Amino acid sequence: MSTAESITIDKNGKLSVPGHVIIPFIEGDGIGPDIWRATQPVLDAAVEYAYKGDRKIEWKEINAGEKGYQKTGQWLPEQSLEAIRQHVVAIKGPLTTPVGKGMRSLNVTIRQVLDLYACVRPVKYVPGVPSPMKHPENINMVVFRENTEDLYAGVEFQAGSPEAEKLISFLKDEMNATIAAGAGIGIKPMSAKNTKRLMASAIVYARDNGYPSVTLMHKGNIMKYTEGAFATWGYEAAREQFGDITVTEDEVYEKYNGTAPEGKIVIKDRIADMLFQQVLLRPEEFGVIATPNLNGDYISDALAAQVGGLGMAPGANIGDQCAVFEATHGTAPKYAGRNKVNPSSLILSGAMMLDHMGWTEAADRIRSCLAETVKNGKVTYDLARQIKGSCKLCCSEFGEAIVENICSYPEKC
Ligand SMILES: NC(=O)C1=CN([C@@H]2O[C@H](COP(=O)(O)OP(=O)(O)OC[C@H]3O[C@@H](n4cnc5c(N)ncnc54)[C@H](OP(=O)(O)O)[C@@H]3O)[C@@H](O)[C@H]2O)C=CC1
Ligand SMILES: O=C(O)CCC(=O)C(=O)O
Ligand SMILES: [Mg+2]
Fold first, then answer.
1. Catalytic pick from 92, 219, 340, 378?
2. Annotated site (Critical for catalysis), which positions (predicted)?
3. What pLDDT does 413 receive?
4. CA distance 176 to 281
5. Which of 84, 110, 121, 192 has the highest local Cβ count within 10 Å?
6. What is the number of structural domains in the chain?
């Protein structure tokens, strides 16, 4: 009989992780099964290497997406959500969302239903990975994307629908707003409460991981009462909850001659379009980036390009009660089932998950052995097409190469 147990979480958010732990996983659609098959052995090998059998993961498959529908008739079965709540930590592959029609995103629904309000996406250079940047070694940013509201809240009405027409009439008659007849409508709700908790988690992350700044990324000049308010509420959260460890960029210039006092995190803001060029020209000026949902979606894929592309981009969705780890990218349908793509995105998401559980020795081993594999010129197609003379591996072979490094002598990685 299995001795595996669930992770538990106390009222302060502290995890209690048993040595033999059950972790639910969703394989995902498209390339999901390929990258999961390459990832799981890497996580198991790193845990075995680091803890010599004292710690072990028992994987529990839960269904969602196409597999969920085939098995249960539901795209996102309630029992899958319940398993994540019960086990506190889970990992998932990407799930397909149809464009312009059909069901709403299952990925977004998971985040909203479980209130996983911070989407955390580190963008860190792995030596040896091809990059379009002159100094990729200077790139060390982490996107904190608000995950529960903004245009992703799902309040949308199709052009010509009775709901859209009713809303257009209401806005015209009661609010004096002109909207073209027959327009589709999307609503962009953003609140102080949800902004402030996102900002608090971004500052705590910066404090705990030694980042010198948190930048609020917004389009507040145009959308004053949503994106502009996001910036205002972000500064308020910093002042009200972290006044002892933060200083604003204005204060740095007005009071401290342009040099932030030792140990203080600088809170600054940048308008979104302009930020896209500054992160390319001077990435070293940015650490944690806190941003609303839509901006966060855009900037996280754009930043991934600086460190090798989406195949290298991990992520996590974190709330007060549970966390779900997943790659930044989607299902890449043209590569589905071809055992071709780069599983590093999910492998590195798995390393983030192990960090979250406090199993940092295993997480560090994964990161160093992945870097060693790339350094040896063993890469998947996405990196191979940018590195002359590299050895192109398929998805599973790349995972196996990392496992081989993990199991080799310690000095190798
Ligand atoms: N969290 C989630 O589950 C997400 C789901 N989606 C969904 O995924 C579907 C497809 O979305 P799409 O916009 O095409 O974006 P995708 O992220 O799925 O992929 C687009 C391209 O990115 C590159 N890429 C992605 N993943 C990898 C990888 N692991 N290794 C190497 N290259 C990779 C490939 O580039 P190339 O063609 O250059 O080789 C691929 O064709 C949609 O239904 C979308 O809604 C999207 C994002 C997140
Ligand atoms: O849910 C989806 O289909 C897309 C989500 C997405 O692009 C993201 O989470 O970055
Ligand atoms: Mg995205």
1. 219
2. 152, 219
3. 57
4. 43
5. 121
6. 3
